[in-house]
Fold this protein.
Amino acid sequence: MTSRGSAGYPIADQAAAPGQAPPHAVEIWLYSLIDEEPAVDAMRTILSEHERDRVDRLAHQDHKRRYIIAHARMRQILARKIGRRPEDIAFCVSPDGKPFLAPETPKPVHFNLSHCADNAALAICETAEVGIDIEAIRSVRDGFARRFFTTQEADEIDALPEGEQLPALFRCWTRKEAFLKATGEGIRRGLASFQVSLAADEPPRVIAIGDGEKAARDWLLYDFSPADGLAGAAALIAPHGAEFTIRELHTID
Ligand SMILES: CC(C)(COP(=O)(O)OP(=O)(O)OC[C@H]1O[C@@H](n2cnc3c(N)ncnc32)[C@H](O)[C@@H]1OP(=O)(O)O)[C@@H](O)C(=O)NCCC(=O)NCCS
């Protein structure tokens, strides 16, 4: 069984030796945050009071719609996994803000959500913490990479032909955000505290965390393309490999 990154790289040796843990299975669900008003109204009813409060505090109708659909669809997908009704799922939040299923959930799974404009991506893994990020590939201020990334990453981007710089910058950005969202530390940790690969001809990987390469080797990064003009990456600790499945959600009962 071999699993490949979106660019076709072998991402792990999937053959589990006897007694060795099997590779993690990661599902990446992609869905749109656009729907008709009656459907959105129905989705609102399955949100928790806390989520409805957040919707009420959003100023723009588009932001309300996106939040409702992102969270209702996430509940529906998770509900199928854990055998609960979407409205009965209870979430907790880590001190740094990472949502997780309440400990009393019958079949706890790890998950992480990312949304960008009208697109959402939800990563689910039963056996390991996972992080996911999607971003629109767009122009950024001069000096952006040097401000947020490591010196090596910024140098590598600057050395590329101009037309290749933005895709490389967003490969770097989504991989880093996915890593930070897997650890749950979010932006608190600092994007320059670890280094990722970003060249188009190099497999996605964490190169070093702090000064060390050893812990970095246990991490697995995976690139995917959520939609035209968007970059996406998922991350998890997976010394024995992982198999990624992309699922597109169009409708759900
Ligand atoms: C919140 C954060 C984890 C990601 O934010 P983001 O990339 O803007 O947003 P995403 O859509 O990818 O993720 C948001 C979701 O992540 C989840 N999340 C929130 N805090 C989290 C954390 N600490 N760890 C993991 N997931 C988290 C939530 O489900 C959230 O969805 P919700 O707000 O609808 O409840 C945080 O890292 C952040 O604020 N990043 C800012 C990025 C930035 O400024 N980058 C600079 C240049 S690279």
Remarks:
- Confidence is low (pLDDT under 50) at residues 1-15.
- Residues 70, 96-99, 112-115, 133, 148, 173, 177, 180-181, 184, 186-187, 191 surround coenzyme A (CB under 6 Å).
